[in-house]
Amino acid sequence: MAIAPVNIASSTASNWLKEAQESLTSAANPGGLMGALQNARTANGSIKSFLAGSQKMAAGFALTALDTLESARILTSQQASEAIQKRSDERLEALLKQSQQPKNYTPPQGLDTVIYFADGSTLDTVNNIFTMSDGKLIDATTGNEYVDESALIRMANGAYLDTKNNILMMANGTKIDTITGLIISTTA
């Protein structure tokens, strides 16, 4: 019987004697199919040797089944890890693809700062002021008449004086032209 060469790993150099002994023992008593085939050759034909050989063969098959099960577990674990890594890579790639600006991308342009209409009215899209053709200003967001806050003098009773247009707006809604003193409109 030939002695199998003994491999000494660098990380276990301090236990080389123990590993060498284990290697010799395992070479002398191989398990699995090799062990079963080797044991079949040494049988002497008695029932005792047959039963001992059958027991060794059953142990060999059990060892083979255990090795197969362990290999399947390792393979399944590796495949699961690779599948998780692949899904993670695909998600990362999709996120990167989604976050990139497309080639030949032209950002959308907003509205013009002033839109001119055919009847002479204009819309200031920056300040949201609609100017009618007669010069009347309307707040485009509320629909109410626009009053420039910098040209107003507010009074304690809720009335205010529009110094730009020379109109006094009373608290009850009456508008008075401050130059002529005439009532322009009354709204209650």
Characterize the structure shown.
- This protein is of the alpha+beta class and 188 residues long.
- It folds into 2 domains: 14-98; 114-185, no CATH class.
- Helix content is 40%, strand content 14%.
- It is built from 3 helices and 9 strands.
- It has helices at 16-28, 32-41, 47-99; strands at 114-116, 122-124, 129-131, 137-139, 152-154, 160-162, 167-169, 175-177, 183-185.
- The strands form 2 sheets. The chain has a 5-stranded antiparallel sheet, with no helix packed on it. A 4-stranded antiparallel sheet has the order 1-2-3-4, with no helix packed on it.
- A hairpin with a 4-residue loop joins strand 2 (122-124) and strand 3.
- Helix 2 packs antiparallel against helix 3.
- It is rod-shaped, with a radius of gyration of 49 Å.
- The N and C termini lie far apart (121 Å).
- The mean pLDDT is 80.
What is the compact description of this entry?
This protein is α+β, with helices and mostly antiparallel strands and 188 residues long. Helices cover 40% and strands 14% of the residues.
